[in-house]
Amino acid sequence: MNTDLLDLRAFVAIADLGSFVAAAQLLAISQPALSRRIRSLEQTVSTPLLERTTRHVALTRAGSDFLPRARGMVEEFESSVLAIRALAAPPAAGIVTLAVVPTVVFRFLPPILTRFAAAFPRARVRILDMVAREGMEAVRQGEADFGINFLGAADPEVEFTPLLTEPFVLACRRDHPLAARRELSWAELAGERVVIIGRTGGDRMLIDDALARHGATLDWSYEVMHTSGALELVRAGLGVTVLPDLARPAPEKGESELVTLRLVAPEVTRTLGIVRRHGTLPTPPAVRLMEMLLAARPASPPAT
To answer: Residue 172 burial by CB count (10 A; 0-12/13-18/19+): exposed, middle or buried?
Structure first.
């Protein structure tokens, strides 16, 4: 099948705008030229894609089925062009794509990106904030130059370079009876209304596995998909939540109504690291950003 990219762009524009006039203006072509492109595409796929009247344009059933495929082909081509341009660009330019677990964006990543932007103002950074498994898949499939994840240390397909190890902590409202404590054991959460993150994110698996090794489980009252949702329920007074230290509420951002406590017996941690697919050659901007991330690693505590 010989499909013209411009025909696909014309179809997607009409579908998005619902108008031949608006689509022609967007694509900077005449309406007759736009109509010819749609006829060409319909001849290629051997079926009508649009229903046209004097006042209305609608997708046929075949058009509705074909739209996501057409959009995907256009986006794939445009992404490929940007990637080729990035390879040909000077070292200080180009695009870097990161697949990171969302909590990395809370505290760790922004100051490093600030320094990167100052050093390489022409470079662009695309951040795919994904749950751990999706982020690993993006790295394996080459959708990201590298990732920041707590999975991958035992994955033969990737290189894992540790960045930092952080504990899980308890967050509660400042007026909660536990707020006066500096630390508490996991066993002391019995009877508390706990807001927990669902298993899809990966943190839940780390917590459940660590507690299981000590013959314990975590009972919960509410389950949400994201850390932000858990914190909102805590702010509403519905309970307490367990989260990675990087996601702890920040008083400097107006979150002073929440406090965090250290969780012990056992202390549950996760190690975040740079994950990169074996055998890949990162672009110069990606290499420099990885170097900045490694330089920002906290110093290891002295041996006791």
So the answer is: buried
Q: How far is 217 from 207, CA to CA, in rounded Å?
A: 9
pLDDT in tens, 123-180: 889 999 999 999 999 999 889 999 999 998 888 889 999 999 999 999 999 999 999 9
> Greatest CA separation found in the chain?
81
Which domains does the chain carry?
A: 5-83 (1.10.10.10), 94-163+273-295 (3.40.190.10), 165-270 (3.40.190.290)
Average pLDDT, the chain: 87
The two counts, helices (H) then strands (E), for the chain are: 9, 12
DSSP alpha helix (H) spans, the chain: 5-17, 20-27, 31-45, 61-88, 109-119, 132-140, 203-213, 227-235, 284-295
Residue with tokens 């445009």: 78
Indicate whether 253 pLDDT > 60: no
Burial 29-57 (b: 16+ CB within 10 A, else e): beeeebbebbeebbeebeeebbeeeeeeb
Distance of CA 177 to the CA centre of its chain: 35
pTM above 0.90, yes or no: no
